[in-house]
Amino acid sequence: MHDIISMTTPSNTDQRPVRPVVAIIGGGFTGAACAFHLAGTLPDGLARIVVFEPRSMLGGGLAYDTAEQAHRINVPAALMSLVPDEGDHFQRWLEGSGVLAADPDAVTPGGHVFARRSAFGSYVAASLAPLVESGAIEHRRDPVRKVAATRAGRWTIEAGDGGALEADIVVIATTHPSPSPPSMVDRALSGHAGYIPDATVPRALMDIGRDDRVLIIGMGLTAADVIATLDAGGHRGRITAVSRRGLRSRGHNLSPQEPFGEFADPPSRSARALLRRVRDSVAVAEASGLSWHAVFDQLRKQGGDIWRALPIVERRRLVRYLRPFWDVHRFRIAPQVEAIIERRLAAGTLSFHAAAIAGVKRSGGGAVSVDFRPPHGRQPFQEQYDSVVVTTGPAHGAVLSSQSFLKGLSDAGRLQPDAVGLGIAVDEQSRAIDATGQVADNLYIAGPLARGTFGELMGLPQVVNHAVLVSESIASRVRSLASLPSPSR
Question: Which tens digit of pLDDT belongs to each residue from 348-365?
Fold first, then answer.
């Protein structure tokens, strides 16, 4: 066991450390971006910044720490950057590091770069490496088991290795929980060799045979990744993807066009009114020679203002009824992945269905029999599969029970779900709101788990801007703790 005293403040817990301690739980892209910008905002040595991340690399996380060569970023590299003021920061790194030269398929015929997702993880890690080497950021390769408030108003963090750290400020930058498989499917197939309840687990698809008949439940970005991964591995069997609405992620229009429409001024006060404006804007855009992509680019750009203008009840309606349509238009697939999908559709080895799963049972020889119920009274049908892969997206409702430290904070009343059901309740500075409605001025939620307040927090540019907001708020508090005046602007 670690020597706990060596990792904490002196034995008198009321005595503040020489430097305020900021603990960031989660070192995927969100946590890495928070640490990067906080270290860049504060004077050297003013605060101790500790990132808890079990992976060897900071910045990879679930999205970018992948060995799958078929997994690509789903927006052009020129639009991805850890540094908001330098939009081509990632693309310059790609060209200068030699990574791009080793991946000729990354460049489209039009010159747009869609690099492998692992390359973006390496870029973020390389950006943080000098800060880690200098000690400005400490990387602790341990999971967090428990976080508890002290009587002195600080936080005790217990790591998986038994060590502990006392912090003045805590940032929760963890990701969403794993997918929640449909209960009917899970009951019928739990333990089946061909059942994959979470496609995001590394090497989850490795046991699928080249000729297996594969059912993918879900049609979003993860489903597209599964199709591309199977294809890259030589799979030649039949793949069927199914969702209730039959909506699948769309591709890009890489022709130059500016965002189109206006959705924030005046603001829409209902999900229905917003939907009408979007439909009208798409029609006007098409009449002007623009594609729907331009309208959704404007929606993304104004997403925060649109979200804040909606009453809570309308945000819930939007999430319940319109989010699937938003997701497949907003989160687009890379051209390389789109080409694989189109090729397999043309070859007849891939199909998409709009249908609910009405029944699942195991058949002879390890096969799985699935009953489908299409919408609008169409004829039900049944098909046989060798493998079933779940790609239904994160289980938003299970956020506070997904990790032991989150459950502990929830049980203690320190965290509560947001009113929309997307993550954790926070204020406009992304500080946690406890069960009594009080704001914790030293407990922050960074990244997608703050979506209930901020709305659009899944796209990388929005996550970066949110990390900057959080780091600036923390920096102000650190200066206060260190009794230093805020710098003049």
Answer: 999 999 999 999 999 888
Q: How many CB atoms lie within 10 A of CB 488?
A: 4
0.85 cut: is pTM over it? yes
Strands (DSSP E) found in 162-236: 164-167, 169-172, 195-196, 214-217
214 near 391, Cβ under 8 Å?
no
Residue 353, both tokens: 């269905």
Residue 214 contacts residue 387 (beta carbons within 8 Å): yes
Check if the beta carbon of residue 48 is closer than 8 Å to that of residue 138.
yes
Residue 296 confidence (pLDDT) above 50 = yes
- Contact status, residue 72 vs residue 452, Cβ threshold 8 Å: no
Query: Hey, is 115 helix, strand or coil?
Result: coil
Give percent of the chain with pLDDT exceeding 70. Answer: 95
Strands 48-52 and 137-140 turn out to be: parallel
Kind plus residue range of the DSSP H or E element containing 84: none
The CA distance from 244 to 366, in Å, is: 26
Average pLDDT, the chain: 91
Angle between helices 89-97 and 117-134 (to 10 degrees): 90
| Preceding peptide of 181 cis, ω within 30° | no
Structure tokens, 215: 């059912």
Strand partners, 368: 362, 385
Indicate the SS3 state at residue 350: strand
What DSSP state is assigned to residue 332?
P
| Contact status, residue 345 vs residue 251, Cβ threshold 8 Å | no
